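Protein: Transcriptional regulator
Species: Pseudomonas frederiksbergensis
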Amino acid sequence: MTSGRSFWSRFRRSEAVMENNMIPHEVVSRIVDGALPVQAWRQHLNLTQQEVAERMGVSQSTFAELESVSKPRKATREKIAAAFGINADQLEL
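Structure follows.
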């Protein structure tokens, strides 16, 4: 990402978005372009599948499968959201 905004500026904006259950424009744009919500959020947060898998306590291949599901179960959405630091509702698009 080559944004002119500093890391901390982007971080504070991301915190505000997550606290208000908002969905960043970048995430929406990725979904419009064909990404699934989990993948769009992961890319927006600059996380690798391996990093998210480690946060969830699963293998990278298991997370890759979860990321490819268009509408994960509620319990799965909650676990992924916790790994992302967002609310599970933000994954329901």
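Remarks: The mean pLDDT is 86.
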